[in-house]
């Protein structure tokens, strides 16, 4: 005798939820990204802004949401939802943003600033729950990241709606670990189940990448020390005098402390802030990117030392 299949209303509830709230979620996503980017601006003031990036974001696909709800019901983690609101309450990762950091110290500085901002009485973005620090306390699998659930208010015709936005903060190597270990194939509900070999290799890879992250921190600290010197010291005149012939160099990258340029011989050199200050006639601190843009061609004098190749602008503008 054939058994009658129970109607699965999960997909219907998910569709109702998305129809009701997807526009508000999109607004919350933009607000949260703007919030995170302004935090990154604050953390990296006068530094290389590329060290923090909050551009990777998404709203979970409807089918994936329905599948996750069904799986959690089957595993006994939640009761079968009966309303769209129950779907929303059951999941914290419907809206997600990934913040990628070049090094662990950038991650530490950013997460400290994030917690400081979200606990400030003047900030409208709050923490829904205490963050999970899987960097300090990695998962058994080796997974490392910092997870925070933000509450972002969105104005709707029915009043303010508090939207949960999951933020994952990772170093580039912590993010790469997930790709290299094919983590997405072994997540709950996926086709493959990790065996001891996979778990052991994944943990060892995580430890190795963590060591590389530590070394990257050391290199970044040394680079910061060297580039900080570009904004101080002499007036930017080459040590071998001002009678040296000039060459043209094309700006390929610019930032607060220095610019990078390529000369006619294909060699890349540094244009330090102190040299730009001299040319523009300023004794105050400046941002190099206020005066030089990518693609600009600048007449420079060349200075080569044991540690760097410098291009000192003769004129700007």
Automatic annotation (TrEMBL):
Protein source organism: Rhodococcus spelaei
Classification via SUPFAM superfamilies: Nucleotidyltransferase
Q: What is this protein called?
A: S1 RNA-binding domain-containing protein
Q: CDD domains this protein is in?
A: NT_Rel-Spo_like
State the InterPro entries in the record.
Answer: GTP_Pyrophosphokinase, NT_sf, RelA_SpoT, S1_domain
Q: Which GO terms describe its molecular function?
A: nucleic acid binding
- Residue ranges annotated for the RelA/SpoT domain, each copy included: 57-190
Domain of life of the organism in this record? Bacteria
Any single biological process term in GO? guanosine tetraphosphate metabolic process
One Pfam family of this protein, by short name?
RelA_SpoT
